[in-house]
Protein 1
Amino acid sequence: MLKQYSFEKTAVQTFAGNVSLAMRTENLQVFYGANHAMHDADLGFPKNQITALIGASGSGKSTYLRSLNRMNDGIATVTGKIWYHDVDINEPNVNIYEIRRHIGMVFQRPNPFAKSIRENIVYALKANGIKGKAELEERVETSLKGAALWDEVKDSLDKSALALSGGQQQRLCIARSIAMEPDVLLLDEPCSALDPISTVKVEETLLQLQKKYSIIIVTHNMQQAARVSSQCAFFHLGHVMEYTPTATMFSNPQIPATQDYISGSFG
Amino acid sequence: MEQTNFQLKKQDAQSHEWDVRLHRATRATREDWLGRGISYLCIGVIILVVASMLWFITSKGIATFTQNHVSLWKFLSGTNWAPDQGNIGALPMIVGSFAVTFAAAIVATPFAVGTAIFMTEISPNKGRKVLQPVIELLVGIPSVVYGFIGLAVVVPFMRHLVGGSGFGIISATFVLFVMVLPTITTMTVDSLRAVPRHYKEASLALGATRWQTVSRVILRSATPGILTAVIFGMARAFGEALAVQMVIGNAAIMPKNLISPASTLTSQLTTGIGDTIDGTLPNNALWSLALILLLMSLFFNALVRFIAKRGQLKNGR
């Protein structure tokens, strides 16, 4: 039996003016029709850090993440404000294509296109008007290096991406996103379909990437959140219950719900 | 001693009992046999029917060449079709059939793909509620009705527009265009719906626009399916007899342009089959036309299979 936790008692940190934030949400709410999936999320994401969103299935963490680059358009109703460079990108007249160029996303299931490795990366670049052959080549190489995949695939760039292993495919998806040189990288349970060794590789990649990008990662795996993230937010039934530095959350949780979740009482 | 013997015997009896029980027929096994028997019977009948049709058409169709000693080359390349006088050049009909088929497919494909994209990507709701029934309705209209509309509307319109009789390849193309449109559209819709949703999501998340996503990801990965749809449409156009016969003019002469009367393999067959006597050259010549139709539909089928196989290889499945 799931215990009832008070949604009034939360511990959500805010950042002082001296911490520069990549993104911030204010009163973000998400509705699937009549179903209120996300209540009043006020979270800020510090630049060049990894922030983990944890919580049980159905806690709203993926829903929240997908709202950040407007992937919920046409699927759910999102109200509230999403601040990015002091612009509310949740307004209808914002160019969603431009947003997604700056806020990239990697999905739970590795989803490379049925094209070659090279074309997978070049696709979005070409779609955004980058044509020079030399530049495309360079971007392919730097992004694959960034995703720690270059050494494994540099001799087979024209082979089908579907021939890669699951972990390689997921790193290709990361490479594909960072080839666009975004500011923010959103990852929706990127390792849940991967084996432990591939998971380690992806995590190492993320730790490298946070030097250049601000990363927000949804994960089921608390150990993973502890290993990679600097900040950690705990979601429960559509509410943000606690948002603290990761070290604090795992050593000294502020509220009973978090305490029970990280000690494995539910989830 | 005796006791052990007794036990052994008892065990034997028991195991025999199990042997019988596990091997006897029950209602379940009998149902199995019955079901299997019925399926085999049905398959057998169908195979027999198909095989005898193939045999019948082939044996009749080659009689022109084996009994009447017409050379195959003359049949395929001759342009004079007058079976009563012994001239059986089938080229005008072959050209006519291919002309209307390709023309109808070329005109219909853009409309069909456009409609399918609208139904799957742009407005799935309206697509399902409004367009789907309309297209299903188009499939259900009998071909004689299409032919009748063609005769009553298209032919006079062409006559008014370009002069002449109004019968011809253009009129036939127009009628066939409407007839193959639903076939190509429904199959294209199916292949677009079969494109994994995560391809679309991945493309959108990379900042690609809807147009870019549709044209470079969705259409690309649905290409084998769309080709198959077009070929099915062509097979339907190639085999359509009645509607074409009503608007093409049925003149067994080489078509010189798109607006003069011409004929197709099917229209010549339906026109001529009642006027010939079994076993004579004019009758055998019609069977030869039927044989060409049969071979072409086999060819279309083989093409569809080939494309499906290639598509699977490409998608790495």
Protein 2
Amino acid sequence: MSEIPTELRFATSHEWARLEEDGSVTVGISDHAQNALGDVVYVELPEQGQLVAAQHEAGVVESVKAASDIYAPVGGTVIAINSALDDAPELVNQDPYGAGWFFKMEPADVEELTELLDPEAYAEICEAEEH
Amino acid sequence: MKKNAATIFELGKTGRGAMAQRVPSGGTPANIPESQLRKVQPALPEVSELQVVRHYTNLSAKNFSIDNQFYPLGSCTMKYNPRGAHGAASLPGFLGRHPLAPEAVSQGFLACLYDLQEILKDVTGMQGVSLTPMAGAQGEFIGVAMIRAYHEARGDLERNEILVPNAAHGTNPATAVMCGYKVAEVGLDASGDVDTEALKAAVGPQTAGLMMTNPSTCGVFERRIREISGVVHDAGGLLYYDGANLNAILGKVKPSDMGFDVLHMNLHKTFATPHGGGGPGAGPVGVGERLLPYLPVPMVGERDGVYRWMTEKDLPQSIGRLSCFMGNAGILLRALAYALMLGREGMHRVGEYATLNANYLASRLEKAGFELAYPDRRATHEFVLTFSKQAKSMGVTAMDFAKRLLDYGIHAPTTYFPMLIAECFLIEPTETETLEELDAFVSALAAIQREAQSDPERLLSAPHDLPVRRLDDVKAARELDLVWRAR
């Protein structure tokens, strides 16, 4: 059973989003996603300042099994990227909700967060996929 | 077998060489400018002829290949390449022919290509075939480029999207993007067929076409293909057939009857020419009436028994030329020889036996306790097993089974593809294996299953009997290092 922190919101495409105190939103992929992908070998991040619409591609994560698109869970501007992943993509496997974060956004409409899945609903999706 | 062979550079000694192989020296050619001449000797290996022979013979013995082992690699159709086809393509008249030789002295060669065009038209139901694409990826690219040219020629410029079922090969969306299209994915239903309701919702005036592999990479034949082609055609789009799995239906079903407008064929899979290790390939394209004017050149035409090259002059709307000459001519000749050896009778036995062998394996493996991904569906030429249960209960994955199979002298099936199915094998035995070989494969997997229960470490640390043990593919990807350097 994968770890699902209660303070996060999730997209059906397995990204997580966390609303920070300063109003920004941090984005990464879930423990379930990193587990399904296997060892991550490369992460392509968006550019700082890039505008991304919700559910649009904002990067790529590549593991020994597959390359998958990363979608922005909410729309907005990319204000920071985790460049540590360039040299250490394994952080995504080791600490998906911490050091393995992908990028931070300034959301265009913070209300979009409420359209994402809460931890219980996301747990159901993971459960279904594991069968 | 020696486990760790040195590179050929490490075998060398300064001044050693093979005098018998030396090119007669005429000194430095006078017409090379000084600035272009080497100042430093190139770092070439200095070895004896016998060292070279042993080195490469030993390397070749490490190969896993269709000539050595059963090779049930799903979606790749690793079948036997008859030596007769190779022999025919190696006739001195073919080998010695200059690619710029005039038509008058190339009638035999041109006739061969013309006959192959006609055979491929017949077996796919298409109106025209161009043999020139150098491989499947180029055939795909040119197929979608023709769809684009067709829409543009009609002034229909709003179509900017290609639909791709999510079981597709990765090359399909890649091709669409290379041709300037957006990609929209269409999902599958639980039985592995395209979700036609989702398709109906996805088509519209933006739809340029749909790219599909049928049978799909899930190893099942799309049962509603006529409905699907109707939906796409009604929306004004065209249908592209990815020929990767043509082997399953060869001589039995024509892509034209399913409603496809354009396709590519992987002759290096379906028409038993060697492949793997990077080619060479051949990816001819076939088209229905609407795309005929756009076929790539050169093609071969015939009038009153005289053959000639057809170029941009004959086909002014042609999408153009893909290479200097005529694709990979040697592969085309092998494919023609293969097709002629089979004949019309034999051609449909390819699809029949490929399908029979896959269903026999699927049925025996299911009885031996393995789990089929689509147990209610008849397999086509390939089928999917899932090792999800073993991964959960015993901690051994599909990859561990695959690596252990190598110790049993069997090439691993395709693993972790299609990506829709967890812990999977995609198994394609092809029509060229004997019953005994298929039974040996079932026995090997059953034996590995027993090992997984009694001694899982045996799987986790496999392979044990090959020149190299389990490779660290994560390290290889993260710290890619391809160049040998002298220490």
